[in-house]
Structures are given as C-alpha cells and as structure tokens.
Amino acid sequence: MMERREFIRANEPLRVSHRLAGALLGGSATSDDISGGGVSFPTFQKLEPGVLLSLDISLPGFKKPISASSEVVWCSDNKEINSRFLVGAKFIEMDSFFRNKIIGYIDGIARKKAAVDAS
Q1: How would CATH label the architecture of 15-118?
Q2: For the chain, which residues make up each domain, given as ranges?
Q3: Given this model, what pLDDT does residue 5 score?
Q4: Strand locations in the chain (E)
Q5: Angle at CA 8, nearest 5°, toward 100 and 76?
Q6: CB-hemisphere CA count at 13 Å for 26?
Q7: pLDDT in tens, 25-77
Q8: Which long-range contacts (CB under 8 A, 24 or more apart) does 106-111 make?
C-alpha cells in the first residue's frame, strides 16, 4: 500500500494545549504523534470532524509554544484509561517558520532513529 501522507510523522510526546476556536478554556494532553501537517492527541471530549481548534504545541528548544489553527479530521474511541478519545487534527493556519521548525525537529528524530537502526 502506498503512503499518502505529505509529511513524515513522529511518535513524539509533546505537550499540546487545545481549545475550541474562540473559546477561552480547553484542555492539555501529550501528543500521540505529530507531523508538519497535523497532530494527534488524547482528549476527554468527543470532537466531530470539521471542528476548528486552537492549538499550542510545546516544542523542545522553544521558550513559547507554537500556535496553530487546526481542524479535526477524525476522532476515535481511545483504549487508554486516561482519556476517552483520540483526535487527529490537521494544521490549517500556522506560520511557515514554525511549521518548518516542526518538520526539522521530526527530521532530526528520524535521523537519530535511522542511525541507531543502522548500528
């Protein structure tokens, strides 16, 4: 089966704060995976596809979280005890500088993994 993803994904535990677009309060979770195109994370709230979210992603090496507007693409039941759902959201608005930082971070992770696998 051919991979359809535009961006490489990394199963990297990053802090993701999320709230419905325009809301003041939301939740926080540790990402399941992330790419330059989106992120998945656990949540207690079922979020329907198409729902708009504001995200703040804590990336190592940055003092402030990276902000992004996103859209829920899928939401599934989660088997983890700590949350009820797993959400996949695509980035719809993010400064290209920060998107490139996420892509570079993931590329660095992939290179380290390849070096370990090769040794």
Answers
A1: Beta Barrel (2.40)
A2: 15-118
A3: 60
A4: 15-20, 27-30, 33-34, 38-43, 52-57, 66-77, 85-93
A5: 110
A6: 20
A7: 899 999 999 999 999 999 988 999 999 999 999 999 889 999 999 999 999 98
A8: 106/7, 106/8, 106/9, 106/10, 106/12, 106/34, 106/35, 106/36, 107/8, 109/10, 109/12, 110/8, 110/10
pLDDT confidence of residue 67: 95
Token pair belonging to 9? 């994904």
Structure tokens at 87: 């959400």
Nearest of 28, 22, 24, 9 to residue 90 by alpha carbon: 9
d(CA 40, CA 25) in angstroms, rounded, equals 19
